[in-house]
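Task 17 of the worksheet. Students: predict the tertiary structure of the chain below and write it out as structure tokens. Keep your answer in the requested format; marks are given for formatting as well as content.
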Amino acid sequence: MMENTTRTATDVTAVWGAPLAAVHCAHCGEAHLVTEGETVSVCPFCFQGPVASQPAYLREEPPEQVLPYEVSERNLADVLERWLRGIWFRPTDLKASQLTQRARRYLIPLWLVDGRVEAAWRADVGFDYQVVSHQDQYRDGAGWRSQEVKETRVRWEPRAGRLNRAYENVAGPALDDHRALMARMGNFNLSRRSAYSPEAVTGAVVRIPSLEPEAAWPGVEAAFARTAEAECQEAAAADHIRDFALQAEHNDLNWTLLLLPAYVTWYKEGERVWPVLVNGQSGRVSGARRASARKANVTSAVLGALALLLFLAGGGLALLGAIAPPAAVLGGLILLIGVLLAVIAPIPAIGVWVFNRRNGLER
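Model answer:
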């Protein structure tokens, strides 16, 4: 595969075989491919900033592979409904049906690199072994007893050698925020990928790679080293490995662009829009599980007002008790209910505040 070393604008529609145009977000700085001619007013990822059309600077070839969706659009509502369970006072806009209606397929680029590694390596490898000892314990009525204790320890040994191996499909980042995205969405099973076709991107939003091969190389080189480290540990039949050092040459590199499946959607609470991202393979959902402080505060205010009314009514009946003793009994009961409501009234507001703070949504 040849790299595009010139910075000329790419005719994405001709290269990718689907009607796509590039837009750039002024808020988050990310660039995306969207359906050509589609009116896009806000960023399809952060939903915060306005977007503007811009030329697309891409390789003069389409992605080679895509990872198919395993969470269908039909099953997306069930995935989101499970994610929403346990939220007190959901915002009016936070509904699985609403999120599903707004959801769009969102494709995330990833580099897969084949290459040959010729290297000298050294490391400490560790082997587990068991140590048996005895502990004496005193128990009332039974006196001293000795108990056998097994402890696992690690024996470390230095190892060094040479490595000449061909590795395939070593994953490397194609985005500056690749690590943050993967932390949000979890892992993907890359073995299930298929060949690219224009239908895979039709109607979808595609994140434009921000790391071309040259910029992505440090991450790929580290991935090659991790792969080699695991293989050296396996070859040594070791239980552990540490201080792995590799002096390597990398040859016959071949770069493949893979698109990972996701969904992106959003909900609104007050004046703020909250994005939600779903792993299109595993169904893992990432987003702010926000409770509505406004709804909780209104509920607390209503309960507080009822408590005040009960105080006033109960107090009035208690005063009438001097004339009509039964009224004093009824007044006392109403006052007691008022006290209970006064104790309960702050719970919704405090509970939602604690919930949002625990989820990192309050400062």
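Marker's comment: The two ends are 49 Å apart (CA to CA). The mean pLDDT is 88.
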